[in-house]
């Protein structure tokens, strides 16, 4: 049985929700730190990240890995997968949905077979499973 891997991130927050701000860090890898604040989350921002943007990055990555594995098992490994995850947040309600879009270059598979594998990868993706309480939709395009 594989050893569990624990990934760690942390956030330092200063002040109250509406006027405060903070910084979140990817501690396990040390790859980056990101500024966070409520206004970016509630109104959008092109300079400050949000929990939903970080969740979208995790979901796009996990889904790409799951899909590439399922395609390999089908003897049709992908040449390239371009995956986007869009996480919708409504202040006062929370996360209301996630939409995955994948544009895939895969040799030796037809559109129906690809669609079936893409949908199965969405269901099997560990991040999708962790977020199962949220509606997750998928657009899968075979180039």
Low-confidence stretches: none
SSE order, one letter for each helix or strand: EEEHHEEHHE
CATH superfamily of the largest domain: K homology (KH) domain
Report the strand count. Answer: 6
Q: Termini separation (Å)? A: 38 Å
CATH architectural category of the largest domain: 2-Layer Sandwich
**What share of the residues does DSSP label as strand, in percent?**
25-35%
Could you tell me the radius of gyration in angstroms?
17 Å
Question: Helix count, per DSSP?
Answer: 4
| Shape category | elongated
GO biological process, one term: response to oxidative stress
GO molecular function, one term: peroxidase activity
InterPro entries: KH_dom-like_a/b (IPR015946), OsmC/Ohr_fam (IPR003718), OsmC/Ohrsf (IPR036102), OsmC_Ohr_Peroxiredoxin (IPR052707), Peroxiredoxin_OsmC (IPR019904)
Protein name: Osmotically inducible protein OsmC
Q: Can you tell me about this structure?
A:
The chain is of the alpha+beta class. It folds into 2 domains: about 10-45; about 50-140, 2-Layer Sandwich (GMP Synthetase, Chain A, domain 3), CATH 3.30.300.20. The chain is about 35% helix and about 35% strand. It has 4 helices and 6 strands; from the N terminus they run E-E-E-H-H-E-E-H-H-E. It has helices at about 40-45, 50-75, 110-125, 125-130; strands at about 10-15, 20-25, 35, 80-90, 95-105, 135-140. Strands 1-2-3 form a 3-stranded antiparallel sheet. Strands 4-5-6 form a 3-stranded mixed sheet, covered by helices on one side. A hairpin with a 6-residue loop joins strand 1 and strand 2. Helix 2 packs across helix 3 (about 110-125). The radius of gyration is 17 Å and the shape is elongated. The mean pLDDT is about 95.
